[in-house]
Amino acid sequence: MPIGTSFPSLGISLLKGGSTTPLERERASLLKGLRYRGISERVVYAMGAVRREDFVPQSLRDSAYRDQPLPIGKGQTISAPHMVAIMCEILRVEPQSRVLEIGTGSGYHAAVLAQLAGEGTIYTIDRFEGLVENARKLLPANVVPLVGDGSLGLPEYAPFDRILVTCSAPEIPSPLLEQLKEGGRMVLPLGKGLQELFLVRKNNVIEKEAHGAVAFVLLVGKYGFPDM
Ligand code: SAH
Description:
alpha/beta, Rossmann fold, two-stranded antiparallel sheet, 6 helices, globular, binds S-adenosyl-L-homocysteine
């Protein structure tokens, strides 16, 4: 095995003498914590394959593996790793899933979705061009980053197997429900002060399942909250 071989999924790399950097040790410890919380190996593996330090501002690189949200500019945040893990777990992205993410932000969650979707395509949209341009440089070929009001969905690319909303909406945006495939799953936070995470399943009827209290930035758009 060549020196320097890395096992991103395990959060370690074999350097000379088997030493690891502090960041690598923190990543390994974060992944261990996710397993301990009951996150599946598939999701832990996907998260281990994406370098969160590349998606946070340079000045916060050393904090990349703290399990907390971090500011990414424009008043927005990259979600805490455990929240990314829980949302992926509930969303159940499959190899070849066609996924829509509302709220590209740093692009980190989209990169994790891309790992989970394998040959599937991830469409990710944010209302801030600056964030999308930055994420575009970091994202793999199966992710399509776009600028616009994600509360309208992306009718030209619909329908989707999975929809992930990483900002909190007043109610389920109707265009997103329409663009979700029959048998599809959508995960989104709802509410303003008190927010709750929901799984929405579309099986002839719409089933909504609550998954606990959360804190996200708001979805601002036609089917979201007004811009203040
Ligand atoms: N998934 C991101 C975190 C996103 S934070 C990550 O991994 O880093 C939420 C994002 O939702 C912000 O970037 C914000 O600009 C975006 N957002 C809010 N309202 C939106 C809308 N109507 N359409 C698209 N993006 C929106």
